[in-house]
């Protein structure tokens, strides 16, 4: 199992998905599923951490989310799609990791600190909300995934997951005579590879050469003559620690375009400024026609400044270069009116969403197929998570078989 070839990501089932989700997450997932072994999870337990009374909507929202994923091109033949609560190993790993996670680590997570300062969210002062970063870490570590596609706002959570993995490896990765066993494993690499490994290890430990570290890891991945246990020892020996039982995940930041909502702010359901993936053509037209524009354009002949206009921000994402040039020049010269500027944008979004909506309609008419995809994905995910739990239980002394 190569952790650097595994990707884990998830979404809370909080309602219908919009263009912000499509450009910020789903298009990236569609690409990643053909390059990595991907696990995409509908994190329904996480939805309860901020809204414990949402239970009646969660299953319906989870189903709708699965339809949107499939319609966007996330494929069950290329990735594993599943619902978090259908893989109870997430909960067990969360419990076991809670035994080693200091409470102060959770209280320092920025999202928790920010919520506690906001009186509007004081009802979130629950164990579930405090512990959700650890549950998120368990979601990742259950698959020993090396990569997690996230936005910049989620970087503290990935760092937290790394800290938890590092602490677990420190507490349970050590073994009697580790140094001697690691040196014996180095010799098993063969004369040429062992010499290269030793050189790369020295470069990393003495000079902090990260490229040497990655090269050494790649060297170990290609070795077919050593056992899994020796490989774990050598991964740990690179950094001077014990065996790597839970690989430390890294954030995978994508070059996603900034997508503004209908009011120019961040697109979100709670702000009522979203175009949803399954909005009808008439709904799309109505929403864009009602969009505010540059306030300086009071009259048709008043010139405008595109950078002040939410419509222009959407042109940057959805329109071709020719249309963008036409809209920019027409706005600044007052050569076109705001309704004229919106017309090609409406058409571009309609055309982009049309094939997605056609696929969504097929899945909406086949609910049993969608449920079957999620059930099969849960079984595949459980198989992988069980292997991790076996490693974790044995390391913690909970092996009774």
Can you tell me the residue ranges where pLDDT is under 50 for at least 5 consecutive residues? none
What would you call the shape? elongated
> Which structural class do you get from the secondary structure elements?
mainly alpha
Distance between the termini: 24 Å
* Percent of residues in beta strands: 5-15%
Number of DSSP helical runs? 17
Biggest sheet record? 3 strands, parallel
Radius of gyration from the CA trace?
Answer: 25 Å
Helix content: 55-70%
Mean of pLDDT? 89
How many strands appear in the DSSP assignment?
A: 5
Task: Give the strand order, joined by hyphens, for the main sheet.
Answer: 1-2-3
Elements, N to C (H/E): EHEHHEHHHHEHHHHHEHHHHH
Protein model, in words:
The structure is a single chain. The protein is mainly alpha-helical and 401 residues long. It has helices at 19-32, 44-50, 55-72, 89-98, 103-107, 110-117, 127-141, 155-172, 178-188, 191-207, 210-221, 228-238, 281-289, 310-318, 321-333, 338-364, 367-395, and strands at 6-11, 37-42, 79-83, 147-149, 250-252. The strands form two sheets. A three-stranded parallel sheet has the order 1-2-3. It has a two-stranded parallel ribbon with strand order 4-5. The longest helix is centred in the C-terminal third of the chain and has 29 residues, at 367-395. It is elongated, with a radius of gyration of 25 Å. The two termini are 24 Å apart.
């Amino acid at each position: 199992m190569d952790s650097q070839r595994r990707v884990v990501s998830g979404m809370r089932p909080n309602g219908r998905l919009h263009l912000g989700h499509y450009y910020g997450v789903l298009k990236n997932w569609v690409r990643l599923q053909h390059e990595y072994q991907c696990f995409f999870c509908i994190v329904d337990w996480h939805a309860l951490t901020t809204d414990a009374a949402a239970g009646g909507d969660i299953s319906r929202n989870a189903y709708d989310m699965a339809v949107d994923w499939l319609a966007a091109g996330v494929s069950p033949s290329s990735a594993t799609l599943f619902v978090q609560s259908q893989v109870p190993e997430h909960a067990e790993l969360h419990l076991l990791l809670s035994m080693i996670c200091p409470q102060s680590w959770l209280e320092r997570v920025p999202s928790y600190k920010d919520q506690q300062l906001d009186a509007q969210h004081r009802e979130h002062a629950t164990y579930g909300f405090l512990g959700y970063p650890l549950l998120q870490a368990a979601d990742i570590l259950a698959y020993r995934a090396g990569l997690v596609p996230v936005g910049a706002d989620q970087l503290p959570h990935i760092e937290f997951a790394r800290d938890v993995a590092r602490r677990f490896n420190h507490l349970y990765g050590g073994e009697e005579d580790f140094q001697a066993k690691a040196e014996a494993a180095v010799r098993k690499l063969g004369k040429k590879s062992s010499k290269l490994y030793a050189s790369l290890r020295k470069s990393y430990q003495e000079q902090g050469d990260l490229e040497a570290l990655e090269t050494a890891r790649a060297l170990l991945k290609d070795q077919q003559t050593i056992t899994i246990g020796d490989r774990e020892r050598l991964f740990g020996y690179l950094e001077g620690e014990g065996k790597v039982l839970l690989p430390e995940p890294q954030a995978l930041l994508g070059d996603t375009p900034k997508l503004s909502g209908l009011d120019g702010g961040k697109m979100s359901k709670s702000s009522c400024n979203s175009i949803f993936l399954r909005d009808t053509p008439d709904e799309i037209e109505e929403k864009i026609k009602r969009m505010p524009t540059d306030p300086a354009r009071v009259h048709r002949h008043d010139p405008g400044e595109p950078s002040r206009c939410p419509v222009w921000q959407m042109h940057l994402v959805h329109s071709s270069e020719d249309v963008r040039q036409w809209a920019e020049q027409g706005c600044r010269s007052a050569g076109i009116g705001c309704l004229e500027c919106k017309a090609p944008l409406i058409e571009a979004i309609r055309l982009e969403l049309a094939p997605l909506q056609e696929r969504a309609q097929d899945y909406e008419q086949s609910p049993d197929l969608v449920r079957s995809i999620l059930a099969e994905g849960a079984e595949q995910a459980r198989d992988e998570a069980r292997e991790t739990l076996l490693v974790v239980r044995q390391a913690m002394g909970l092996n009774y078989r």
